[in-house]
Amino acid sequence: MQSAISSPLYSVSKLNREIRALLERGFTNIQLTGEISNFIAAASGHWYFSLKDDKAQVKAAMWRGNNRYARFRPDNGAQVLVTARVSVYEPRGEYQLIVEHIEPAGEGLLKQQFEALKMRLAAEGLFSASHKRPMPTQIHRVGIVTSATGAAIKDILTVLKRRAPQLEVVIYPCLVQGVEAPSQIAQKIALANARNEVDVLIVGRGGGSLEDLWSFNEEVVARAIFASQLPIISAVGHEIDTTISDYVADLRAPTPSAAAELVCPDQHQLLTRLNSLTQALVHAWKVRLNQKQAQLTSQIHQLQLLHPERQLQQQQQRLDECLARLQRAAVSVVARHAKQLDNLSFRLHKQAPNLKLIQFQHQHNALSERLERAIRQHLDAHNKRLALLSAQLNSVSPLQVLARGYSITKQDEIVIKNVSEIDQSKPLVTDLVDGQIISHITSISTKS
């Protein structure tokens, strides 16, 4: 029994189209984080990739009209935060994210900000070796800008007490972590310069995460170090940690303890070596900066200014796939025809046309001789037959009959066989072997 209410009949394309409309209405402007994988930058300028976590993944597309405003180009493995809407790629019935905005997630965003500030300050010359002040040859008093209760101050004082107890120490206490830390660090650097009571200034703190060390990546601290008239040693975190302060300072120490060793009088040789390493670091940074600038220029040229409609975006994605398939097919066809051409060329080479021509010439000569013999034989046979037929024809020729004494009588060129065929009003012509006799009829008699 049929249901009273029949279900609507869908085509596959209609179903995908309505699901797409349903998803786009229900999931707009959502935010999610994940790891980039299978990243592809198509020739059209669009980006295609997958966004995954440890349990699942979803395909995503970011049209060139949106990715032109991205602050960075994602790579496989990057953790990102995206703002997107959910849609369906109708030709395959696959749901996907249409990404409107993308940025690094968590520490990645801080690293992005770090690189941006580093590039800008470098362009202004804050990292230039020409602005770096040399360490004094004689150090009597050392200033320290750091937390009064942190591990850094303890490490510095321990090393100074052990290696150079004669040195006087002036501490400029400040916060080294938190919202107010950057301004306090800058203020203490300015205060030490205003008092001008130390020969060298150590600015830093102990180790920690990138967020913990972030105060030394702030622009206000970098500019305070650059404006200092006192030589400054940056001693932030551990040896693997690098901050903006390290680039601006006159000298970088891998740790606060190492900074204390650098200001000790018996560390002149190590100081010279560290200066050399600093120069090498600046050079390496310049090389990396040039590479990044080249990459940025290339990416800017790839971005397009047009913003296509959503349907065009779907078709463009489909076109990218078709183009890739067409290119693969074209390469396959060219390779196959090239192989066939090589085979034919090899076979043609083996045929040796000049040898074939000589062989055909010999065959032609042999056939010509056979043809001539056959023609002569055929003519001889026909000549003999012609002679025989001529003899037979002569044997029955009327001329031969006339030669034996017979004659032929005709009237109007018609041979007279019976008396009834004669018209008495017309003459008769009688053919003899050596001439004709013309007779006029006077009477006709018949055999009874």
Describe this structure in words.
The radius of gyration is 57 Å and the shape is rod-shaped. Helix 4 packs parallel to helix 8 (256-262) and helix 5 (181-195) runs parallel beside helix 6. By secondary structure, it is of the alpha/beta class. Helices cover 47% and strands 19% of the residues. It has twelve helices and 14 strands. The mean pLDDT is 85. Strand 2 and strand 3 (57-62) form a beta hairpin. The strands form three sheets. A five-stranded mixed beta barrel has the order 1-2-3-5-4. 20% of the residues are buried.
Lateral arrangement of strands in the main beta sheet = 1-2-3-5-4
| Structural class determined from secondary elements | alpha/beta
Distance between the termini: 119 Å
- Beta-strand portion reads 15-25%
Which descriptor suits the 3D outline?
rod-shaped
Rg from Cα: 57 Å
Largest beta-sheet characterization: 5 strands, mixed, barrel
Task: Give the helices and strands as they follow along the chain.
Answer: HEEEHEEHEHEHEHEHEHHHHHEEEE
* Total strand segments: 14
Outline the secondary-structure elements.
Layout: H1 12-26, E1 30-41, E2 47-52, E3 57-62, H2 64-67, E4 79-89, E5 94-104, H3 107-124, E6 141-146, H4 151-163, E7 168-173, H5 181-195, E8 200-205, H6 219-227, E9 232-236, H7 244-248, E10 251-252, H8 256-262, H9 268-302, H10 310-351, H11 353-395, H12 398-403, E11 408-411, E12 414-415, E13 428-432, E14 435-439
Parallel strand pairs: 3-5, 6-7, 6-8, 8-9, 9-10
Antiparallel strand pairs: 1-2, 1-4, 2-3, 4-5, 11-12, 11-13, 13-14
Helix pairs in contact: 4-8, 5-6
